Amino acid sequence: MRLVESRDAKNSVDFKEALLHPSAAGGGLYSPEFLPRFCGYSHADLSYQDFALKLIESFEFGHEDLFKKALKSYEKFDDPSCPLSLQKIGEKLHLNALYHGPTRAFKDMALQPFGVLLEALARDRRLLILCATSGDTGPATLKSFENSQNVKVCCLYPCEGTSKIQALQMRAMDGRGLRSIALRGDFDAAQRILKNLLASEDFKRNLAGRGYELCAANSVNFGRILFQIIYHYYAAVKIGRELDIIVPSGNFGNALGAYYAKLMGAEIDKIKIASNANNILSEFFNTGRYDLRGKKLIKTISPAMDILVSSNIERLLFAKFGDARTKELMQNLQNEGVFVLNGEELEALREDFEADFCTDEEAMGFIRGCEFLIDPHTATCFKLVGGDKTQVITSTAEWTKFTPSMVRALYGRACVDERADLLGIAAAFGYGVKEEILRLFALEGEPFESYDLEGLDAEILRGLG
Fold it and tell me: Would you call 217 exposed, middle or buried from its count of C-beta atoms within 10 A (0-12, 13-18, 19+)?
């Protein structure tokens, strides 16, 4: 199978090229030319790794032995036999916990095998991987490449836009070809910088002069999305009946994975999009209007969802309406800050999606009312729970990464000593805290240097030596 540009489907590349060079020349994103049908329900008895391999093979990308090796990275998760935990928490309600990997967030589900795949495909090349993160992508990317010989990583993150633990996770892995740069700005600014650098011929020429090629680990890279299809399809198969999937969404890659799983044959009715106060996605799915004009990013207790420019909406537009319409809509967004679907297009979206947003106060109420610990991102999903249909909440991060918000929600007070409060909550709920989380507090006193957005390319190049 080939991957095609979302704004000009006549241009296509193979899987290896899309993985190594994810920036399409026409400005769009590489997407599958079609979604294969996959008979997942006939593989219900397979292990997660074997199920994943069968699904990937349905794309006919080749590289089967390499995919098999990449999927072995799941053996490093809490349960070596299965990287996720699917729990029934109500009569018709399930929780798909995806945070049992090394950095305690769902991004490990894609980035652990992605790292193995990318390094093997690069072979004797040297790569610089850039990623922009609102909290979880950065630590997961750094962890995936921490032992790499030919891949260096630079993570860009907003200096006040992640939790302390997320920032400490990135700082803890600085060195050995890994680097984190805190930016004065929000995640949308970091993501804009990333896209500009991926498209910059000057930057790529300067990299080439140092012997490096440029790549990206954000979900602009289809290699990320591929692994995010699997866990939604797997959950649908294990539950064994038609269901809705509720996804806390910022950059829309996780929800896109659920939509692709549906197109491939998973018995999913609606994908329900949970937003926080930055409710641009709920506005889009309810009105057909994606409007950035006059909007400013709002800081919330669910920082990984503090995003206004959701990159993977472009892949959804392509899947629904084709390349010509996608190009028109995305150019409108770029030039005017807004695009609007027509009535027929909005109805087409509503066949597959519903959306709502959850305030911080509502999310804290859901955290307080839950019998077990949920992080603030997972909490937003409870706003969309209800009805007669079986539902699956996609739980994306371990609560330990957001202790101040948990303290505020559970006890109605400010967090004074994050380590002490983390251990207090864990003891109250009988929860075991991973040692690697506790070790991060030794870094608290280290300075967090932040950079202005201008001239960042020179700073990244300087770090390569």
Answer: buried
